Amino acid sequence: MYLKPKIHNIKDIKNLKRYKNIYYLGNIDLLNSLCFTIVGSRKITQYGISVVEDIVYKMCKNNIVTVSGFVEGVDYHVFKETLKNKGNHIICLGYGFDHFFKNIYPQFVKDLRLFFKNDLLTDLSNILILSQFEFGLPPSKWTFPKRDELLASVGKGVLVVEAAKKSGTFYTVKRAFKENKPVYAVPGNIFSPQSAGCHFLIKEGFKKNRALLYSDFTQLINYFGVNNKQDNLKNKKIMVFDKVESTILNVLSAEPIHFDDILVSVKLNSSKLNILLTKLEIKGLVRRVNGSYFVRKY
Description:
Residues 20-205 form the Smf/DprA SLOG domain. Keywords: Membrane, Transmembrane, Transmembrane helix. The protein contains eleven helices and twelve strands. By secondary structure, the protein is α/β, with parallel strands linked by helices. The chain folds into two domains: 6-224, Rossmann fold (3-Layer(aba) Sandwich), CATH 3.40.50; 240-296, Winged helix-like DNA-binding domain superfamily/Winged helix DNA-binding domain (Arc Repressor Mutant, subunit A, Orthogonal Bundle). The longest helix has 16 residues, at 46-61.
């Protein structure tokens, strides 16, 4: 670690007052911004990735700070998409700071280093890394539930992208309910175990507290009274599509579709379709998965 974490006594930020000290690196002022926590399964599906790409892109365009827990799956994609869209991000660790760069999740380290100048982590204006744990404390079964509660306290609300029926995500959800914060859950495939937890939160929840069914970013914008900057930007993008590109985009969805199935739907030759899909990838509107499958972004 190139920078020494600081200790901050947070007494003036609501819902964080119960923490005597917080260790941190980066821009502590991000805590005073509109922050929203996105959580979910470590075993993220392609559907979950599409949801994260959509919501994080729109949050970044509306200057909403994303918050995640820095492990695989949903957390990783929230982190990566926020950096990709030049947004602000808060990371909550489930261990002491000295374990932060011990190659626990090397893909995070690689992306984080690429984001900063000269590989020295000297510019932390867009990032805040928090830990409630003292130096030397390794990750364990009891530290992560505590981390999950911190995630709920930092954000003004919580969005559950994907979760199994028995999920650590529920620690975050329960804490958010306790703090009277809105909790949204993304509905998914009824046959997917990674959506079972979301369906449980929407249908049953905990002690009469149920999650709101998330269906559109406008829900969040309206709740927090933020003017949706994304609408105008998205409309301008659509104006530059030609008829064939629009046809391809209409065929695609958040679920992976095989190249051959797209070919049948749009009635193009394979080389022409391949060129157009590549162009849409470059525009950031299509993502290739597992070689010959494609999903639509945003």
